[in-house]
Amino acid sequence: MAFPDLLPELTAAAPKLRGRLLANQSLAEITWFRVGGPAQVLFTPADEEDLAYFLASIPGHPVTVIGLGSNLIVRDGGVPGIVIRMARGFTDVVVEEETKIRAGVAVPDVKVSRAAADASLAGLAFYRGVPGAIGGALRMNAGAYGGETKDVLIRANAVSRAGEMVTFSNADMGYSYRHCSVPEEYIFTEALFQAKPGNKDEIAAEMESITERREATQPIKSRTGGSTFKNPPGHKSWQLIDAAGCRGLVVGDAQVSELHCNFLINRGNATAADVEGLGEEVRRRVKEHSGVQLEWEIKRIGVPADKVSA
Predict the structure, then answer these.
(1) Which helix (H) or strand (E) holds 189?
(2) Taking phi first (over 0 means left), then psi (-120 to 50 degrees means alpha), and beta for anything else, what does residue 69 get?
(3) CB proximity list for 296: less than 8 A, separation 6 or greater
């Protein structure tokens, strides 16, 4: 079912817009799970100024931000309002002042680690093991293999819902485990990272080791969204899930990975309801077995198919 078309209203409100606006655009093909309904409007800004102009011009409509769609479930009914996809216009990654890396939020995390390695800069190799892009890394303090975003970030640029450009220092981000305290109304656009001089061969070896460990322990070639649940204090989610008998558990065409049971996979024809329903069943079984309530790490947006207004 299609949403009402907002394009005439938006193009009238923002006549100088340079980015791309699409009505009732499917999101399934741009998410790693390959599930979900359409965005009422999908906006891809041309650059930071275009984003600021758009946000200042369209008050009143709900706004949702996505990047590469790795850590994301889009529900089957789609996403009402405006979905902003940070893509072209936010893909620069450059080395500055010899030991700093500046990256747009649409740059894949792995590309940042490679840019640092090519410049013989250490400290960012852990991004080789983080799926997704820098925007998501900023929003959730992404980390892997002993490193986290909070360890290397100097500052992040953002645009407010009112179209104001703002800069946040590392301290301003309010980072904790898989959490950032910056309100969702701010849309990150760019990050500046601090690296340190290193040995190029050693950095390359570290990244190769991370690659090998990921391929051996994670279903990275499947339709998945990365780690599904945060690790509760004092526990590892995969161990709790395994102990609750959920390894290989299936709902519809979604399955708990046999290789790493903190990963859910789409076996080919899963719906978003299958994937989210499987996650909720895992949470129920873990709570029943161990008394621990798992918290979602994967972001879920939109409405179920049965909640879409006619």
Answers:
(1) strand 187-194
(2) left
(3) 228, 229, 230, 279
Q: What is the DSSP annotation of 126-157?
A: GGGG--SBHHHHHHHT-EETTEEGGGTEEEEE
Average pLDDT over residues 48-74: 95
Tokens 């390894």, residue located: 247
Task: Give the tokens for residue 28.
Answer: 């399934």
Q: What single letter denotes the amino acid at residue 173?
A: M
Report which DSSP code applies to 235: -
Active site amino acids: 178, 227, 297
Collapsed DSSP state (helix, strand, coil) of residue 110: helix
If pLDDT is split at 50, 70 and 90, which confidence band does 49 have? very high
Residue 167: CB partners within 8 Å, gap ≥ 6? Answer: 155, 156, 157, 158
> What is the percentage of the chain residues whose pLDDT exceeds 70?
99
Burial category of 235 from C-beta neighbours within 10 Å (exposed 0-12, middle 13-18, buried 19 and up): middle
The pLDDT tens digits for 214-237 are 888 888 888 999 899 999 999 999
Instruction: For each of the domains in the chain, give its residue range(s) and CATH number, in order of start.
Output: 9-85 (3.30.43.10), 93-200 (3.30.465.10), 218-301 (3.90.78.10)
Strands 223-224 and 187-194: unpaired
Phi then psi for 292, rounded to 5 degrees? -95, 130
| 167 residue type, one letter | T
The reported pTM is: 0.93
Q: How many helices (H) and strands (E) does the chain have?
A: 7, 19
Tokens 């002993």 -> residue? 146
**Residue 193 and residue 170 in contact, taking contact as beta carbons nearer than 8 Å:** no
